Amino acid sequence: MEKTMLTFDRVSAHYGKIQALHEVSLTVNKGEIVTLIGANGAGKTTLLGTLCGDPRATHGTIAFDGKTITDWPTAKIMREAVAIVPEGRRVFARMTVEENLAMGGFFSDKQQYQERQRWVYELFPRLLERRTQRAGTMSGGEQQMLAIGRALMSNPRLLLLDEPSLGLAPIIIQQIFDTIEQLRREGMTIFLVEQNANQALKLADRGYVLENGRVVLEDTGEALLANEAVRSAYLGG
User: What is the pTM of this model?
Assistant: First the structure.
C-alpha cells in the first residue's frame, strides 16, 4: 500500500475578500512526482503557499506525513523536511554559490552538511565550478540549479518546485527536468507546479488540472497527456 505523504482535503484560501482556492483536494504519495498544471492565475502558486502557511487556508485541512499542519508556522513546516524552490528562484544575489548552499543547510551538522554539499555538486557540476561566484552574476539556468541545490541541502522528504522552467532556454529546461527525474529515482517525493504541461506530465506519476482555484481533472500523467481537453487547453492541440 502506498504511503501518503501530503494531503489537501477541501482546502480553500482567500486574499482579502477574493477566494483564490475552492475546496481543493489532492494527495501526493511517497516517492511520487505529482504535477499541478493550469493557466496563469489558476491558483497554482497560491496552493503551494497554503502548504507553507502563506496565505493560510481558510477552510479544510492540510496533512503532511499523517500530521495536520494547516495552522503550523512556516518555520515549523520547513523543519518537518519540506523544502520549496520558489517561482523566480530567489537566490541571494550578493552571496556566493557556497554561501547560498550554506543557507539551505543551516540546521545540518558538519558531516551532514558536507555530504549534502557533495551530492548537490554531483547533481550540478556547474555549481562546483562556480562555487565562489556571486549568485547575482550567474545565468538564469545556473540560478535555478542553485535554487534547487539550496533546497536539497536541507535533506527534504518533500520537495516543492514552483515553475522551475520559467524563463529558461529549452536546453536548460531539459537539464532541469532530467535532474528532477534523477531525484525521483533516488526516492525523493516531488510536488511540481508547472506551466510547461507537456514536460511536467511526461515526468509525472499523476497530475491535477487547476482552473480558477478548482481541481477540474486528475489522472495519471500519461492519461492527462492523451486527454483531448488537456491537449487543447495546455498542449497546443
Answer: 0.92
